[in-house]
Amino acid sequence: MIIKDLNQFSLNSEENKEAIANLSKNLFPSRKEEIWKYTPFKKFKKINFHNQENFKIKGLDTLNLPNLDGIVIVFENGRYNSKLSRIVETDEIDISFSSDIFPSNNFQTIKKNNYFTSLNSSFLTNSVLVNVNSNTKISKNLNFINIVSSDNCLSNTKFSIVLNDNSNINLRQYFLGNSSISNGFINHENNIYLNSSSSLSIDKFQDLNNNFNFCNEFITQKNDSKFIMNTFSCSGIIVRNDIISDVNGENCHTELNGVFSPTKNEHIDNHTTINHLVPNCKSFENYKGVLKENGVGVFNGKVIVHQDAQKIEAFQKNNNILIDQDSIIYSKPELEIYADDVKCSHGSTTGQFDDEALFYLRSRGLSIKKSLQLMTLGFINEVIQKTSNLEYVDFVLKRLLKE
Amino acid sequence: MSDTLIEIKDLKCRIDNQNILQGLNLKINKGEVHAIMGPNGSGKSTLSSVLAGNDNYEITKGSITFLGEDITEMSPEERSWKGMFLAFQYPVEIPGVSNINFLRTALNERNKYFGIDSIPAKDFLKMVAEKSMLVGLDNKLKNRSVNEGFSGGEKKRNEIFQMAMLNPKLAILDETDSGLDIDALKIVANGVNKLKSSENATVVITHYQRLLDYIVPDFVHVLHEGKIIKTGDKSLALELEKKGYDWLKTDTAI
What we know:
The structure holds two protein chains of two kinds. Chain A is mainly β. Chain A is 13% helix and 42% strand. Chain A has one domain. Chain A has helices at 14-21, 115-122, 355-363, 368-384, 390-400, and strands at 71-76, 79-80, 93-98, 126-132, 142-148, 154-163, 168-177, 182-194, 199-207, 210-221, 226-235, 238-247, 253-260, 267-276, 282-291, 296-305, 313-322, 328-337, 343-351. Chain A has a ten-stranded mixed sheet, with helices on one face. In chain A, strand 1 and strand 2 form a beta hairpin. Residues 1-13 of chain A have low confidence and may be disordered. By secondary structure, chain B is α/β, with parallel strands linked by helices. The mean pLDDT of chain B is 92. Helix content of chain B is 40%, strand content 29%. Chain B is globular and about 55 Å long. In chain B, the strands form three sheets. A six-stranded mixed sheet of chain B has the order 6-9-10-3-11-12, with helices on both faces. Chain B has a four-stranded antiparallel sheet with strand order 2-1-4-5, covered by helices on one side. Chain B has a two-stranded antiparallel ribbon with strand order 7-8. In chain B, a hairpin with a 2-residue loop joins strand 4 and strand 5 (69-70). Chain A binds chain B through residues 354-357, 359-368, 370, 374-375, 377-382, and chain B through 52-54, 56, 75-77, 79-81, 85-86, 88, 91-97, 101-103, 105-107, 109-110, 113, 145, 162, 166.
């Protein structure tokens, strides 16, 4: 077990301050580009971001998160909060902290940079690298909590994890914005590397309230590995996930699931790319959107089956429910296939709840609110039941349904 | 205290500018079973929907008084809490929502309305076991999604199972016999009969006399063009079976 605290913040330099201030100017990617078309950058305007050194969260229990009995790593306002974290020494995991960028040769060979990854790398506040040793199966969840607790605070954080051969771990990531603050921004990057026969499952929970969260996520899979990521996006001014997965080993299983539920002018954006680079792999994608009260959602999923990547099975699905007339969903499932012996499908549906079903439930004594909740639950159940822990499911549902 | 459960006075309603009920009068007392028969399009299903509070229909005239209270403007859920139940002709499938979870929510919503604590899980499950026996509902169906993939007969049984769980004061069975084979019909009718008491009442809407062999009505009403044109006892149903509706239609024409 190695714990290094190399907090070398250079954010206070005049130069960097100015660069952060530029965020509120017009330096964003062009909305003429397809992948940025719907992201409402104007919501960033006039916000003067800064970095905040203080920790404000009194204790882990104040966050009311479910079963945090394993390792807990807390980043608050972009910095590692050692008081709230709980890192247990084991032979199975190495955890190290740095404000440096980790050597990228371990990760994706072609890094797909964008404005926000550049921002992240340039002004990285803190970074953690988790190394899971070979032939280990970690039974307790690894918890990573990334919270913004100060107004206008910009956090540029990285989480990197390497699973060595035949290792296995479950990770829970929380991206939280204190409900009493606003205009905080967690600009996060996940770097994920799965070696042969390893298995990683991530439950990612995003509840930002009046704050922003961008996650750029880069995944590389080697042969016989299994990767599952369930993304539950509950709230935030803009929440955007850009997942790029390179499946670069045979017999891999890749699964991306998600539920997003924007309300009240919130914008939740899911962009995914699965690159099937080699033959004999399977991928599954299932995203459910529940939108109401001027909530805006985006799903843009892309599966690319590269040349000679034969015998690929890839299924992609996005279903959306608009609870009222005022919400918007932009859904774009995409398949690009350059191999000739594959089994792939994709589909998208958007609809509203059936009036007859609503009347049926109400006639049994369920209020409109409860009826809609129950129908929503029925709608997202398929994805929710991917996570097995009841306490966690309860926690996620309460926030997704805004109970 | 009055024995009147529900009283419908001069009820007129329409949907999409089409008048359906055109001055309907009906009074139902506790302990009674009423059968409503009538040709296709006479307004039978509309009546059941309007009673349950379906706001697709616009009530243009008249009143519905349930337990002494005008419920014309009341929401479907509130009617349910007060003891109204409609067994649907076409029960709706609700994917992903388990039957059990749905019923538990329904009971708890009612308890909340009356300021009573939620029903403990143990008591609830005991009740489920008891009531599902009544209609021989397969154990597996209780945990499946509401009506999803149920056969026609299973859906109807599930309606009566829900009725048993909610124990209504007024149950309206909208063509509960349609789509049932003879054995299932007997089971469903038997379930309804077991739930009957001197405190509640049942309205049976049907096309066929056969159901009334099993659920014996005190009154049989004939609905035609949105009005009750004839009321009799159970022998009226037998007569209708023989003669059809045409003789009644000409009666009213004169």
